[in-house]
Amino acid sequence: MGYQNSTFPLAIYGCLDTASRKLLWLRVWTSNCDPKVIGRWYFDYLYETRMMAAMLRVDRGTETGVMATLHSFLRKHHGDMDPSDSVVYGPSTENQIEIWWRELHERMEKYYKGHLCWLKDQGHYHPHDDKDRMLLAFIMIPLIQKDLDVFRESVWNTHRIRAQKDTILPDGIPNHMYSFPEQYGLEECGFLPVTEEQLKEAATPSGVLTVPDDFLLPEFRAECERVLPDSETIRPHECRDAYIYLKNNFQL
Prior knowledge:
The protein has 252 residues and is an alpha+beta fold. The chain contains eight helices and seven strands; from the N terminus they run βββαββαβαααβααα. The radius of gyration is 20 Å and the shape is globular.
């Protein structure tokens, strides 16, 4: 599932294990509408874990096309089902991921939204100015990614999900349910191995490795780092001042 606010160059996309409700990955970028970017994030996750789910459920949108194709391509190696049947499409409102999104919104988005709206309302940030958008991305994306990592690892995946009357899924802690499904009446029947060779084979036709590792052009990032050489030390409450300082001293 993804979320994007077109006013600001900040888009979040995530992947969740349905049974345990464990968040597998969360990424923030300047856009989540490029299918190759979403596909690259899925590819990176598979490359890191070397395991894939038997089934993949996605929104029926153009941004999920490469991810779905990549999944089907890799599933052909397992021979247990028609690869095209391994991808299920459905609206995001029916996805379990909507539940954690509300939690994430309460914990993080409202805080950042206040700073972002202040910059816009005070005339420091113009949504239709490409330079302003990339300057803001330089400041905000690392900050938000850090918070997403904390939310995923230390908040959501370690909290206890209470029993819900409208679902047959068990209650428990996502990390524990994911690692010990048999203790919750679940079966570990959906994790299949994927090799480096298979991933390399899938990477070329999918085009995921053509996606740049950076959302900024090299010369743009170099100038940002000249102005703010210690940008990794910026704290969330300093984001407004950091952006204004960067914009006032940026010379490209």
